[in-house]
Design goal:
By secondary structure, this protein is an alpha+beta fold. It contains 6 helices and 15 strands.
C-alpha cells in the first residue's frame, strides 16, 4: 500500500479570519493557504514538523447543501481528515476491490495568495456515512502545498499529530472498513466502562476508532454527525488542553511526547 500517513485534518467554521485568530490565540502559527476556486472556499494552514497539517476552512458563501452544514451551524469543529498517498490510483483500486465506497481519482487545485497554483489528485469517499477518510496525492511539489520552515514552529510547542479519534457507532464494522483501506489489522484494542476502541497505525500517526458504551459527548456526537472525526491529539514536549469553544468547536489537545 502507498498510504503514507495523515495528510491533514479539516477544521471548518463560518469565517476564516475568525478561525485564524482563534488558533493564533491558542499558540499556533497560521499561514494563509489561498482559495479553492471550484469549491468556493478559502483556507489557512497549520503545518507541523511531521509534514501533516490542520486546514482551517470556510466557504465564501453559505452552503446549506454542504455535508458539513450542520457542523458549521453549530459553530464549526473537526469536519474531515485526509490520508496522504504516493500512488493514489493504486490505493483507490485496492479499496474498491475490498468493496469500500471510493471512486476514481479526481483533480484538485488551490490558488495560493501569491498566485501560485498547487494541484493534486483526490480520492474522495462516495458514501461519507462510514467515517472513512479521503486520499490525496500531490501533483505539484509538496512543498508548494504544505509550508515549511518557520510556518511549522508553534508557540505552544506542537510538533505533529499523534492520534486522531474517530467516533463510530459499531467498532466491528468500522474496524473491517479500516482494515480494508489500510491493509493492516488494528495494532491494539481495548474496552473500558465508557468505550471500546481499536487503534490503527498509519505512517507516524494513529487513527483511533472509538465506540461509546454509555451516554455522553461521544454518543451525542454520533447522534448529531454520524461516524466522523471526534478529537485530535497533537504531540509536544508538554501536555496541554484547549477549550473547544476557543478552537471553533474542535476537540484538540496536546499530549507529551
Amino acid at each position: 500500500m502507498a498510504i503514507q500517513g495523515i495528510d491533514h485534518v479539516v477544521v471548518i467554521g463560518a469565517d476564516l479570519e475568525r478561525l485564524a485568530e482563534q488558533y493564533r490565540a491558542l499558540g499556533f502559527t497560521v499561514t494563509p493557504g489561498g482559495r479553492h476556486p471550484e469549491a468556493g472556499a478559502d483556507n489557512a494552514l497549520i503545518p507541523f514538523e511531521d509534514d501533516s497539517f490542520i486546514e482551517l476552512l470556510a466557504f465564501r458563501e453559505p452552503r446549506p447543501d454542504m455535508r458539513w452544514a450542520r457542523l458549521v451551524a453549530r459553530g464549526g469543529g473537526l469536519a474531515d481528515f485526509v490520508l496522504n498517498s504516493d500512488a493514489v490510483e493504486l490505493d483507490l483500486a485496492a479499496a474498491r476491490r475490498n468493496r469500500l465506497p471510493y471512486g476514481a481519482a479526481e483533480p484538485g487545485r488551490r490558488i495560493r495568495p501569491d498566485g501560485v497554483e498547487v494541484s493534486w489528485l483526490a480520492g474522495p469517499v462516495s458514501d461519507t456515512s462510514f467515517g472513512l477518510p479521503s486520499l490525496i496525492q500531490d501533483v505539484t511539489p509538496r512543498e508548494l502545498r504544505v509550508p515549511g520552515g518557520a510556518a511549522r514552529v508553534h508557540a505552544n510547542g506542537a510538533t505533529g499529530m499523534a492520534r486522531l479519534i474517530v467516533a463510530v457507532n459499531n467498532i466491528d464494522n468500522a474496524s473491517l472498513l479500516y482494515q480494508g483501506l489500510l491493509a493492516e489489522d488494528a495494532e491494539t484494542a481495548r474496552v473500558t466502562d465508557e468505550f471500546i476502541e481499536a487503534v490503527f497505525r498509519v505512517g507516524q500517526q494513529h487513527i483511533v476508532l472509538r465506540q461509546p458504551l454509555i451516554a455522553g459527548p461521544l454518543r451525542q456526537h454520533i447522534l448529531q454527525f454520524g461516524d466522523s472525526p471526534y478529537a485530535l491529539e497533537l504531540s509536544a514536549p508538554a501536555a496541554r488542553e484547549f477549550d473547544p469553544q476557543a478552537a471553533s468547536g474542535a476537540r484538540i489537545s496536546i499530549i507529551a511526547e
